[in-house]
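User: Hey, quick favor. My workstation is busy. Could you predict this chain's structure for me?
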Amino acid sequence: MVVTWARHDPHDEPHWQVGVVGVERERQGRGIGSALLREFCTRVDAHGGVAYPETDKDLNLSFYGKFGFKTVGQTDVIGVSNGFMLRNAAR
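Assistant: No problem, here it is.
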């Protein structure tokens, strides 16, 4: 499992890793996740580099896409589809 994720990790350049982030179902749709991701992107932009999230939810691919993340790969990890994304810092 970890080996599969590591294969997609951008080893050749410094990058910011997006950890596991979630909003409780009854609180979704209130902008909490967007506020968290916006702050993360602001910090990445200020310091430069690349941001790299992994997700096992297809819905998250479009959510991250709103913040400039591009899908760079997808593969099954123990039977669950995982998406790998990158976002370069805005200049």
